[in-house]
Amino acid sequence: MTISPSIMTTYGRIDIAFTHGEGSYLYSEDGKKYLDYASGIAVNAFGHCHPKLVEALKDQASKLWHISNLYRIPEQETVAEKLVENSCADRVFFCNSGAEATEGAVKVARRFAWANGEKDRTEIICATGAFHGRTLAMLAANDRPLFREGFGPSAQGFTHVEWGDIESLKNKIGKHVAAILVEPVQGEGGARKAPRGYLKLLQDISAENGSLLISDEVQIGMGRSGTLFAYQQENIEPDIVALAKGLGGGFPVGAVMAKAKVGDAMIPGTHGSTFGGNPLAMRSANAVLDLLLEDDFLKSLRENITYFDNKMDALINDDDKVSPVILCKKGSGMLRGFHLTEKFAAGDFGNISREKGLLLVGAAENTIRLLPPLNTSKEEIDHAFEILSEVVKEIKKN
Q1: 304 and 182 co-located in one domain
Q2: Model confidence pLDDT, tens digit, residues 308-355
Q3: Which of 202, 225, 281, 322, by CA, is between 20 and 30 Å from 231?
Q4: Cβ–Cβ contacts within 10 Å for residue 115, how many?
Q5: Is 195 left (phi over 0), alpha (psi -120 to 50) or beta?
Q6: Computed from CA positions of residues 130, 131, 134, 135, in that sequence, does the dihedral angle turn out positive or negative?
Q7: How many structural domains are present in the chain?
Q8: Counting beta carbons within 10 angstroms of the beta carbon of residue 120, is it exposed (0 to 12), middle (13 to 18) or buried (19 or more)?
């Protein structure tokens, strides 16, 4: 069946339509069952149709959907308080997507500098390999010229330094820099985890320079790292954190979190979002937070991450060392990837996996990403790696 010409061709869509999902599995129109280790690109944090999320949305849908931020939204206050209680932040702004969250974070950083009388402190330093969204401003923050092609002049005020290279940063930092914007793990950039100690050095350098540190946790945040926020593993406190994807468990929700002195630079009229933080979105986000903060959930998740990591090692060790398919494992927590040798394209790897009933996601650097639901079971992990082993063997035959 061909895809409707009424849909704008911004995606190279795979010709599969799903009718329903349950837990870690999706079911297509032809009845085929797929283990979903793409998770809507790290969105479906608790898989499909988790009963607590379904119950929360059904209940709210029968009461109130949208009223706008002209009025108090108690559900928004509940989620904000939980995020603040479990993070280094003091203030939260709600939006609808990751790009809105990262762009909002940049606005907050620049506004903070302006409010402190430093009107020329507007530059945002980003890293090579970065992906922060697809708005016009975030295209300039990204590090893929292809994304910017055909969209006119790039937004000013963004500079890139080499990922993981402190000397590169020191050469670009200055009193014109409002903030350093960094992903603790680059998702689209190839499941690349920041080197140990890198984020702490970024924090120290930004603080010494009078700049802010923004942690883009759109993909790695909300438990995917094994802690609620990835920055918590590095013993740092960013000034601003951008969230989305897993925050709503499948419902569109984004957030900008900031320390009080930074967030308070945003006064009425400086920013807004028509749909941001509406009651439906907040009930979904609240249910996700309740699940993540349940006793021992994150501890159990970390145990599964270790199990998953060992499975990755075993698959690599079973690969033929003379002519390997997999060069190495990448990423962290439940944002993982395999770096494939040049003669085996990540797209082809993903196609064969899908034919065998396993959904994966490609990324830069010829990386195939594995993004399981955070509540996936050891049995499902075993099943995934059985399929991955079959994929490696099939690729070697061809």
Answers
A1: no
A2: 999 999 999 998 777 899 999 999 999 999 999 998 999 999 999 999
A3: 281
A4: 16
A5: beta
A6: negative
A7: 2
A8: exposed
Domain boundary among 240, 259, 292: 292
Residue that finishes a domain, picked among 263, 292, 321: 292
Closest CA relative to residue 275, chosen from 96, 101, 133, 103: 96
For residue 1, is it within any domain? Answer: no
Could you tell me the pTM of the whole model?
A: 0.96
Same domain, yes or no: 126 and 181 = yes
In a domain, 303, yes or no: yes
What value does the mean pLDDT take over residues 208-225?
98
Provide the percentage of residues in the chain whose pLDDT is more than 90: 93
Instruction: Give the C-alpha separation, 219 to 60, whole Å.
Output: 26
Q: Environment class of residue 321 by beta-carbon count within 10 Å: exposed (0-12), middle (13-18) or buried (19+)?
A: exposed
Rounded to 10 degrees, the C-alpha dihedral 169/174/180/184 comes to 30
Task: Give the tokens for residue 368.
Answer: 């195939």
Token pair recorded at residue 168 = 């590169």
User: Six-digit token pair at 106?
Assistant: 């940049």
Q: Residue 147: pLDDT band by 50, 70, 90 thresholds? A: confident
CB 33 within 8 A of CB 25: yes
d(CA 218, CA 147): 19
Query: Per residue in 78-107, is it b (16+ CB within 10 Å) or e — as a string?
Result: ebbebbeeebbbebbbbbbbbbbbbbbbbb
Sequence-distant (≥ 6) Cβ neighbours of residue 19 within 8 angstroms? 27, 28, 29
47: left (phi over 0), alpha (psi -120 to 50) or beta: left
Question: Is there a domain that residue 41 lies in?
Answer: yes
Determine the pLDDT at residue 323: 80
Indicate the pLDDT class of residue 146, thresholds 50, 70 and 90: confident
- Looking at the fold, whether 348 and 381 belong to one and the same domain comes out as yes
Distance (Å, rounded) from C-alpha 57 to C-alpha 250?
11
In a domain, 12, yes or no: no
**Tokens for 331?**
């990423």
Instruction: Find the domain containing 347 and state its range.
Output: 18-50+296-397
Bridge partners for 241 per DSSP:
215, 257
For 222, list phi and psi in degrees, rounded to 5.
Answer: 55, 50
Give per-residue pLDDT as tens, 220-255. Answer: 999 999 999 999 999 899 999 999 999 999 999 999
